[in-house]
């Protein structure tokens, strides 16, 4: 007898919604909120909000400030680079396995994701583009039965994910990302593992050149950067007028 899927709790929904808003930079790093604010905005009691915040704090996305509330954690560049390295190390091996076992359907699915990314670029939808970028890379994990590895990597990469958001907003490198995706598929079709790994390595480590520049441009969003700047809010603010600078 098949087990029924577990029903999501209110705390699960709050965790997902708030976590996604943080990762997508709908709430900027450094913003201070209270449990009461969140409970009122989401029309729920304090208890599930508190449970969701405990999980988000474990992941390093928020931190508790005594007598103040909770603060959206600022981006830690050193941790972002380590998160990037973990993903790179695992994904390279996943690609090596994929290139030896891919099917026509795999190529068709990947090309479909590229077409959707092209559409996102035309519509200037950065968040959609990044979401599709994640889907593209997670596809290799799913095709090689490594979904659990992907869940671990993406689930503990809040600094890296937010840095990617900033780089995409402040640069026009989506076209180069798309070009590298196409090159990866071409190498896979040719079963050219050497070229695939070379392209993927450049692709997966591409934030290094932009990280420091972005950190200097928006120092208020990062930990331990010497310069100070005016606070900015990125994207559609999830909590509207409730955010506090």
TrEMBL record:
Pfam families: FCD, GntR
GO MF term (any one): DNA binding
Source superkingdom: Bacteria
Amino-acid biosynthesis listed as a keyword: no
SMART domains referenced in this protein's UniProt entry, alphabetically: HTH_GNTR
Keywords assigned: DNA-binding, Transcription, Transcription regulation
All copies of domain HTH gntR-type, residue ranges: 8-75
Gene3D superfamilies to which the protein is assigned, alphabetical: GntR ligand-binding domain-like, Winged helix-like DNA-binding domain superfamily/Winged helix DNA-binding domain
Transcription regulation in keyword set: yes
PANTHER family assigned to the protein according to its UniProt record, in alphabetical order: TRANSCRIPTIONAL REGULATOR, GNTR FAMILY, UXU OPERON TRANSCRIPTIONAL REGULATOR
UniProt-recorded name of the protein: DNA-binding GntR family transcriptional regulator
Species of provenance: Lacrimispora xylanisolvens
């Amino acid at each position: 007898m098949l087990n029924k899927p577990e029903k999501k709790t209110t705390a699960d929904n709050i965790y997902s919604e708030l976590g996604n808003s943080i990762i997508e930079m709908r709430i900027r790093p450094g913003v201070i909120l209270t449990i009461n604010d969140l409970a009122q905005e989401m029309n729920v009691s304090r208890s599930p909000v508190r449970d969701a915040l405990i999980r988000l704090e474990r992941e390093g996305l928020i931190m508790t400030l005594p007598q103040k509330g909770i603060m959206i954690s600022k981006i830690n560049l050193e941790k972002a680079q380590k998160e990037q390295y973990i993903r790179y190390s695992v994904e390279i091996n996943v690609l090596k396995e994929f290139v030896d076992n891919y099917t026509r359907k795999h190529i068709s699915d990947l090309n479909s994701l590229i077409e959707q990314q092209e559409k996102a670029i035309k519509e200037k939808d950065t968040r959609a583009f990044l979401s599709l970028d994640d889907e593209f890379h997670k596809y290799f994990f799913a095709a090689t039965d490594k979904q659990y590895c992907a869940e671990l990597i993406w689930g503990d990469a809040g600094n890296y994910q937010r840095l990617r958001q900033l780089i995409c907003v402040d640069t026009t490198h989506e076209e180069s990302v798309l070009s590298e995706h196409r090159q990866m598929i071409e190498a896979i079709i040719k079963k050219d593992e050497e070229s695939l790994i070379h392209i993927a390595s450049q692709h997966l480590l591409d934030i290094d050149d932009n990280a420091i520049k972005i950190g200097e441009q928006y120092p208020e969003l990062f930990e331990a950067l010497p310069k100070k700047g005016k606070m900015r809010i990125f994207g559609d603010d999830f909590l509207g007028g409730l955010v506090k600078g």
